[in-house]
């Protein structure tokens, strides 16, 4: 039974992530039904754990907490400070009560879900994680995999039984590995810019030089702008569609650009590595 439950979690999750990666590559937009599937899986699995462990009324707050997290991630609503605060307080209450009352391994395992939710919100609203779908994917993964999956003798790297596996939960491991994999884009940029002779730092790591007309039609952000009538080159993406018009009016024919990276691809690759190989940090 344990193997079938693990397989039930791993394979549908992989299918959802692969589908999301295709959408991200083609359109840079991912329908929320992907995350709805994962959240539903997380809710059902949490409810099963509550019933199997006979956690009673307090335990029922755990799947309710996941429902509230899913609602916040998936419900497209008008901005409202009152609504947001009400949701955040509700999530905090349904998270903290089971953590303190139930405690033990169950409480420690469950609390990782609202913690990942809070961390990803901070990363998203501070701009460190730019894509809403990227943040949602990590949160959704955390609800399905609060603990590391083990299936058919995998992962190859053993999961420590100590505090390491509680600090570096699966969703955090996936995010960490995805960030490392995305750094390969910087290596690629460095090599092609050295070959082309584009040696401006740090732009040569962040992106490349592209004809303006091609850039306007590509999935890229400009790293150049016109400010007070003068060209300005920055080391970050300028997420303003009007920047192309300003550059064109100034007479620019080539601009430094950085790609809109389909981050779901490294997230999916990281998930595959997690399930098959494991989290490399656990070797240390």
| Unreliable stretches | none
Q: Which H/E pattern describes the elements?
A: HHHHHHHHHHEHEEHEH
Radius of gyration: 22 Å
Average predicted local confidence, pLDDT:
90
Strand adjacency order, main sheet: 1-4-2-3
Largest sheet composition: 4 strands, antiparallel
Structural class: alpha+beta
Query: Tell me, what's the shape?
Result: globular
Percentage of residues assigned to helices: 55-70%
| Termini gap | 32 Å
Number of strands: 4
What's the tally of helices? 13
Please report which band the strand proportion falls in: under 5%, 5-15%, 15-25%, 25-35%, 35-45% or over 45%. 5-15%
What does this structure look like?
- With 284 residues, the chain is an alpha+beta fold.
- Helix content is 64%, strand content 10%.
- It is built from 13 helices and four strands.
- Strands 1-4-2-3 form a four-stranded antiparallel beta sheet.
- Helix 3 (56-74) runs antiparallel to helix 4 (81-101).
- It is globular, with a radius of gyration of 22 Å.
Please give a quick description of this structure.
By secondary structure, this protein is α+β, with helices and mostly antiparallel strands. It has helices at residues 2-27, 33-52, 56-74, 81-101, 104-125, 132-144, 164-167, 170-182, 184-196, 203-206, 212-217, 243-250, 264-276; strands at residues 208-211, 220-227, 230-238, 254-259.
Which helices and strands occur, and which strands form pairs?
Blueprint (H helix, E strand, L loop, with lengths): L1 H26 L5 H20 L3 H19 L6 H21 L2 H22 L6 H13 L19 H4 L2 H13 L1 H13 L6 H4 L1 E4 H6 L2 E8 L2 E9 L4 H8 L3 E6 L4 H13 L8
């Amino acid at each position: 039974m344990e193997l079938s439950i693990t397989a039930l979690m791993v394979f549908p999750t992989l299918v959802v992530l692969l589908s999301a990666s295709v959408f991200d590559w083609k359109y840079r937009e991912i329908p929320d039904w992907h995350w709805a599937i994962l959240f539903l899986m997380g809710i059902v699995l949490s409810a099963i754990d509550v019933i199997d462990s006979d956690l009673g009324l307090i335990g029922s707050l755990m799947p309710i907490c996941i429902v509230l997290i899913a609602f916040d991630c998936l419900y497209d609503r008008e901005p409202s400070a009152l609504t947001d605060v009400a949701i955040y307080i509700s999530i905090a209450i349904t998270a903290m009560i089971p953590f303190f009352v139930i405690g033990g391994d169950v409480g420690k395992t469950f609390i990782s879900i609202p913690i990942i939710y809070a961390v990803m919100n901070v990363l998203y609203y501070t701009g460190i994680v730019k894509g809403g779908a990227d943040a949602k994917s990590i949160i959704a993964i955390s609800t399905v995999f609060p603990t590391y999956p083990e299936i058919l003798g995998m992962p190859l790297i053993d999961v420590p039984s100590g505090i390491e596996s509680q600090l570096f939960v699966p969703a955090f491991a996936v995010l960490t590995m995805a960030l490392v994999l995305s750094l390969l884009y910087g290596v690629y940029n460095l090599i092609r810019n050295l070959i082309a002779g584009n040696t401006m730092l740090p732009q040569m790591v962040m992106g490349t030089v592209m004809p303006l007309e091609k850039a306007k039609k590509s999935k890229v952000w400009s790293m150049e702008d016109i400010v007070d009538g003068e060209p300005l080159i920055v080391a970050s993406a300028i997420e303003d569609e009007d920047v192309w018009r300003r550059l064109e009016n100034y007479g620019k024919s080539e601009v430094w650009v950085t790609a809109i990276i389909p981050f779901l691809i490294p997230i999916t690759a990281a998930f595959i590595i997690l399930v098959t190989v494991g989290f490399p940090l656990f070797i240390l």
